[in-house]
Amino acid sequence: MDLISMVTVIVLCATTALVANISVAVFHDGIRPILPQLYEGSMSRRDAGSVAFGLSIGFVASVGISFTLSTGLLNPWLLFLPTDILGVMIGSRLLAALAGAAWGLLVITSLAAVNSALTSLPIDALGALAELGTPVMSAFALFPLVAVFYQFGWKSGVITALVMLATRLLVIKHTGIYPESIQIFVGMLFLVGLAIRKDLTDRAAGQTPPTCPVCTVYLNSVANESFAISQFWRLLVPHCRRRSARNFCRL
Description:
- This protein is mostly helical.
- The chain contains 11 helices and no strands.
- It has helices spanning 3-21, 35-40, 45-71, 76-89, 93-119, 125-132, 134-141, 143-174, 179-204, 213-236, 243-250.
- Helix 3 packs across helix 6 (125-132), helix 4 (76-89) packs antiparallel against helix 5 and helix 7 runs parallel beside helix 9.
- It starts with a helix and ends with a helix.
């Protein structure tokens, strides 16, 4: 790995640990619901770190480490799940960023040594490790299909399942790429296409889609903030005495 790639990985790991520490974003979706509690102080960092560790360590072992050692390619499960743990567990922003950078450096420097140690064994350890991530990747590829069944009924789900199965068989027979990647792509195309079709049908029938409560709260907060800003300027304008200040306030 060249110097630019190493610096990029280290900076990415430091950044992800930092944003997890300040409760801005995390890579693991399961950790995201506890960020408000961590930000408000109702959950300690020790408890948040234990939750993050319990949710992430299985993916790190089954997908992150096995995929990287079997293919030699870095993946986000190996890099960013541990930085989520470090970010929510460490109290200091600086220490969290440094710990994330140290993890990225450790992954880069130890990958070749661990790979050499496993290939020197008398058994095929890398092949066995690669099989650990197969069930997880297959489950990920089925997520769009589950969403189609849940949102659009069994008929659309059966059609989507048949097309995804045919696509998987064709990819396995005629290409050498991972069939799960094409399978999830086809499933997402069906999911997006069915969602657009339903939206157009509902609009033609005069039906309005349900309002997302999270979006409603956000829009109300923005409206209240805009109202507060307008009231501030209304109070400020009468106090502007000089002409330049009046011109500024008119803007």
